[in-house]
Structures are given as structure tokens and as C-alpha cells.
Design brief:
With 120 residues, this protein is of the alpha+beta class. The chain is 31% helix and 25% strand. The radius of gyration is 17 Å and the shape is flat.
Length: 120
């Protein structure tokens, strides 16, 4: 997974979201290994707090390795059309955590547990 935290420039919310949906996502999803994207916007937590970068995009990656996918992104980055409506972005790559006790979860059950996020 590649996770991108972002926020629009002051007063540029509409332009930022339009660019993200109509330009940026389609461009990134054409890069080999990037198979889907989900965009999220923060809502106040139970304490009323919001993050400094309220938008989150989670890209699902299917590639030989996360490094291969990130190299493809880096090679394409100079051609991506960026917007002046971007106030800031930070991206982080993640990989799946394997079961801590592989002996306790066997074969197909381990795969199912990872997919469902239901590790016991």
C-alpha cells in the first residue's frame, strides 16, 4: 500500500479535489503495479481533533515488490501533472504484516485472516 496524506492550498478545496479525482488518480492508476485507490477525508475524532492533512489516499499495489512499484512511480513522477491547488503532501509505503505466530495459523486460514483483518 502507498498512503498519501494531503491538504489543499488555502481556499483551493474545490480545485484540489477536482484535480485529484479527474487528473491525479487516473495518472497514478496507469502506473504499473498501482491497481486501485481510495480517497478519504478526515472527520473530527471523539475528541474533536482533525489532522493537519485531512485528506488520505490509499493506493493498492500489486507488484513483484513494493520497491518495484515505487521505482515505477518515481520514474513516472516527472510527467505527472501536479496542481497549484496542492497545499502539501506526504507519502508512506506499507507492506502487510505477516502473522507473528505462523504455527498458530495454518495455510489458507492465514491468508483469509490477513485479508479479513481478523488475526487472533
Amino acid at each position: 500500500m502507498l498512503v498519501v496524506h494531503s491538504h489543499p492550498a488555502e481556499g483551493e478545496d474545490r480545485e484540489f479535489n477536482q484535480w485529484y479525482e479527474q487528473v491525479h488518480l487516473p495518472e497514478v492508476l496507469q502506473i504499473e503495479g498501482f491497481v486501485s485507490a481510495t480517497r478519504l477525508r478526515a472527520v473530527p475524532s471523539h475528541t474533536g481533533q482533525l489532522p493537519d492533512q485531512p485528506y488520505l489516499t490509499v493506493y493498492e499495489i500489486e507488484a513483484e515488490s513494493i520497491e518495484v512499484a515505487l521505482a515505477a512511480l518515481a520514474a513516472t513522477a516527472p510527467t505527472l501533472r501536479m496542481s497549484p491547488a496542492i497545499g502539501g503532501m506526504a507519502s508512506y509505503a506499507y507492506s502487510v504484516i505477516e502473522p507473528a505466530n505462523a504455527a498458530a495459523v495454518d495455510g489458507e486460514a492465514a491468508e483469509t485472516a490477513l485479508v479479513e483483518g481478523n488475526m487472533k
